[in-house]
């Protein structure tokens, strides 16, 4: 099962809202990391992106869960 996540966009961003689909494994890794550290350092986000196979811009605090 995949969930849709809307990445946090910067306030001055004029781009459209992007949707990222997560696998169960990606979601578990993200939840575990953000459960331990609420505001991870940029280096942690880079490593987490590499672990999950996601883009660094997709691994951010402030994502929202939308039903499919």
Automatic annotation (TrEMBL):
<dbReference type="Pfam" id="PF00046">
    <property type="entry name" value="Homeodomain"/>
</dbReference>
<feature type="domain" description="Homeobox">
    <location>
        <begin position="21"/>
        <end position="61"/>
    </location>
</feature>
<keyword id="KW-0539">Nucleus</keyword>
<keyword id="KW-0371">Homeobox</keyword>
<dbReference type="InterPro" id="IPR009057">
    <property type="entry name" value="Homeodomain-like_sf"/>
</dbReference>
<dbReference type="InterPro" id="IPR001356">
    <property type="entry name" value="HD"/>
</dbReference>
<dbReference type="GO" id="GO:0003677">
    <property type="term" value="F:DNA binding"/>
</dbReference>
<keyword id="KW-0238">DNA-binding</keyword>
<protein>
    <recommendedName>
        <fullName>Homeobox domain-containing protein</fullName>
    </recommendedName>
</protein>
<dbReference type="GO" id="GO:0005634">
    <property type="term" value="C:nucleus"/>
</dbReference>
